[in-house]
Design brief:
This protein is mostly helical. Helices cover 66% and strands 1% of the residues. It has a two-stranded antiparallel ribbon with strand order 1-2. The protein contains 18 helices and two strands.
């Protein structure tokens, strides 16, 4: 895969570097010609929503003349960070473990697919299944696939909004495309999506962020996504609670319990961010109790989680919360992103020529994702099939099996396949997103201000300025 190729790239004399911040690194040598020991360069400060990082002051080399120093003061400074050294061994190993889980999940899903085909054959539904697929309007399936593409683009945009305020952030757009693709890929192919977080943090550190900074950025995005799921489900229950009660009766209590669990999860996450020391003390007590009874296999790992990662998690979100406007912007983007995901059954229903209400499909899709995420199997296997049959079985009728396959194709299998080639994307320009945004904004201002030769000095008319 692309990941293996980049990890095996040879390093001759010095680590491969990219222009993102700091002064150009040089290899120091001793008098005997052997390279002197190098101190590990510090990675840039973590970038999260609302975090402000001031640019470092340039230092002049010893013996430089005042003239040379003055000449260099106005020169463009190229920032460089050793991205290879910014990736910790722990992050690399976690990513490899995620890939191992993916291989097992692929074998598991292959077995599930064969079992589903066997069920269609022996139940005598294969003819109905194939007949239903032959009646599909492919243009609606294409629209559904494009809707998922919008889901992916919005996810990348939410990350961009999180780092665009920092002029020294080493993370580029292609880095964030890789991070979002890793979230989709490992969320779909690891049990309960456990491999997504380490895979995304690994790719953030690979771009030049410190381990703590990558964890802070990821935790902020994770909290906003979880909060978005709870808010979206609440809105849908307000609009379609009567529909659920009339259609499913008391069974809707299960959905309400899942919704309540999601809200409780969000409350706990916010509480951890607000009171990290309190939760660290509770975690240490639980860890000592579990270790005393032999229930903990990797004590050092969980000790680090309790005493280090909780503080980093809290500090990252607190830094993000200082800029509430951008944080709210990320939340709004997350709600739009979830809307694209929950609307996919609506496209499949239209592909079969079924009349469907979009709001009802959004509400049912939201409940379906809660059921799917509650199952600790790759892709929520079991919860996806049962939830789809329960929530959308009446809408599809005899075409429910074919509808499930098409929905699963554009919601699960196709995104997973398309995300795999994007895992190895890396930004190489070295220019921060903040600098690019300002440069493009200056070009737009110049273009609008000088249109038609009337934007010159002393000219009349209306001058358009984009801010």
């Amino acid at each position: 895969m692309a990941e293996d190729a980049e990890d095996k790239a040879p390093v001759e004399g010095h680590s491969r570097q990219r222009d993102v911040g700091g002064a150009p690194a040089t290899a120091a040598t001793s008098a005997s010609g052997a390279p002197a020991p190098q101190k590990r360069p510090k990675a840039p400060k973590p970038q999260v929503v609302g975090a402000k990082v001031s640019a470092p002051k340039p230092k002049h080399a010893a013996g430089a003349t005042p003239k040379a120093a003055a000449a260099g003061a106005g020169a463009k400074v190229k920032y460089r960070v050793d991205a290879v050294k910014a990736v910790s061994t722990q992050d690399r190993e976690a990513d490899k473990q995620s890939m191992g889980q993916v291989r097992k999940s692929l074998a598991f899903l292959g077995g599930v697919t064969l079992a589903y085909l066997a069920y269609l054959i022996f139940s005598g539904q294969m003819d109905v299944f194939l007949g239903s697929l032959s009646q599909v309007d492919n243009t609606w399936i294409l629209r559904g696939a494009l809707c998922y593409l919008v889901y992916y683009v919005i996810g990348v945009s939410a990350y961009v909004l999180s780092v665009i305020t920092d002029p020294n952030s080493p993370v580029g757009v292609r880095d964030l495309m890789s991070v979002e693709a890793a979230g989709i890929f490992f969320m779909n192919l690891t049990p309960n999506g456990m491999g997504a977080a380490p895979a995304q943090i690994y790719r953030l550190t690979r771009s030049g962020l410190s381990v703590g900074g990558a964890g802070a950025l990821h935790s902020t995005r994770f909290i906003m996504y979880e909060a978005g799921e709870g808010i979206f489900a609440a809105i849908m229950l307000v609009f379609r609670l009567d529909y659920f009660l009339d259609s499913f009766g008391d069974f809707i209590i299960v959905g309400i319990l899942l919704f309540a669990f999601k809200i409780l999860e969000c409350v706990v996450l916010f509480a951890i961010c607000a009171y990290p020391k309190f939760f660290s003390s509770i975690g240490n007590w639980v860890l000592r109790f579990a270790s005393k009874h032999g229930w903990v296999k990797d004590y050092d790992h969980w000790y680090q989680v309790v005493n280090n990662q909780i503080m980093e998690f809290s500090d990252g979100f607190r830094s993000a919360a200082k800029n509430r406007r951008d944080l709210i912007g990320v939340l709004v983007l997350t709600l739009l992103q979830l809307g694209c995901l929950y609307a996919l059954p609506w496209f499949v229903l239209n592909a079969f020529g079924k009349e469907a209400d979009l709001i009802t499909c959004l509400a049912s899709g939201s409940m379906l994702e809660l059921l799917t995420s509650a199952i600790p199997l790759p892709g929520g296997t079991g919860g996806a099939e049962g939830g789809f049959a329960l929530l959308f079985g009446r809408m599809f009728g005899a075409q429910a099996s074919a509808g499930f396959v098409l929905w699963r194709a554009i919601e699960y299998f196709l995104p997973t396949l398309c995300a795999a080639p994007l895992l190895g994307l890396r930004s190489t320009s070295g220019e921060s997103i903040n600098h690019r945004f300002k440069r493009y904004g200056a070009r737009l201002r110049g273009r609008f201000g000088g249109r038609g030769g009337r934007g010159g000095k002393g000219s009349g008319g209306i001058k358009v300025t984009l801010k």
